[in-house]
Amino acid sequence: MAKQRSRRRRGPRLLDLPGIWLGQHWQTALETLGRLKENPLPSAMTVAVIGISLALPAALYVMTDNLRTMAGGWDQTAAISLFLRFETDDTHAKRLSQDLATWSEISRVHLITREQALEEFRALGGFEEALEEITKNPLPIVLAIYPTPTYSTPELLEGLQDKLLKLPEADFARMDTLWLQRFQAILDLVQSGSLLLGLLLGIGVLLIVGNTIRLEILNRRIEIEIMELVGATAAFIRRPFLYAGAWYGLLGGATAWLLVTISVLLLQQPVSRLASLYRSEFQLSGLGFAATGVTLGASVLLGLIGSWIAVNRHLRGAEPQ
């Protein structure tokens, strides 16, 4: 019986150690969160600054993502609109469209007859009185040219346009995708700027968390000295400060998500009103599941890194004299 009691007093079994380790970390995380609640105003100000810093690049990402989605519908427009001479009839135009569809540079050709063009023009609205005065359809036949992906560059499109203008039936042509390519280039520039802004603001978050943890270390200097005197390890002393940085990052990331979501909801009605003027509909999208996970993960990581830097730098100065 004495041997059995001595075995029981030796300590926890090896299989119990992971549970004990997780329990200690969970307890430290809850205690750290409780410390943040004890100082609501300073904690809320720190979280708000972190949230605003992270919300700016996140809002730029949401803006460019919605603009790319909107431009995705514009990709369906023809690259070149070939306007035929007025004396060209529908039969001749249909035969020409079939011939052009066999070209290696062209993926497909869509024929827009005079009647279809007039109906589209009438559907735009605002020209009802002028159309009533028209006795003869003045619109020409249009061939919407869709090139193959290999001929979608501006240089090749210009060469294809010059080739099409040499046709005897061609009157003039218009390139419809150059503005879209310029728009995509502007979006790429905005996206690069948002990444740079996110990097700069991420450094700002590191400084904010690091300074906050530094002040907390100074306020708990005596407590840290007592823990070192009783033999506490550096990892044990460092643990609550790391969790404090993680909480600041997590709450800041959640605040950034909330700010972006509220902004999207507030802008949805004006965007819908603007889209209705163009007889269209567009639904704004916020931060998706993946983007939300990246935002929260990055914010927690920034909080951990900032607190780690602050602890490693200032914990050495907290050694007992």
TrEMBL record:
GO terms for cellular component: cell division site; plasma membrane. Residues 79-160 form the FtsX extracellular domain. It is a multi-pass membrane protein. Keywords: Cell cycle, Cell division, Cell inner membrane, Cell membrane, Membrane, Transmembrane, Transmembrane helix. InterPro entries: ABC3_permease_C, FtsX, FtsX_ECD, FtsX_proteobact-type. The keyword Secreted does not apply. Residues 197-314 form the ABC3 transporter permease C-terminal domain. It is found in: Cell inner membrane. It comes from the Bacteria. Its main location: membrane. The keyword Thylakoid does not apply. GO terms for biological process: cell division. The chain crosses the membrane at residues 44-64, 195-213, 246-267, 287-311. Belongs to the ABC-4 integral membrane protein family. FtsX subfamily. Forms a membrane-associated complex with FtsE. Part of the ABC transporter FtsEX involved in cellular division. This is Cell division protein FtsX.
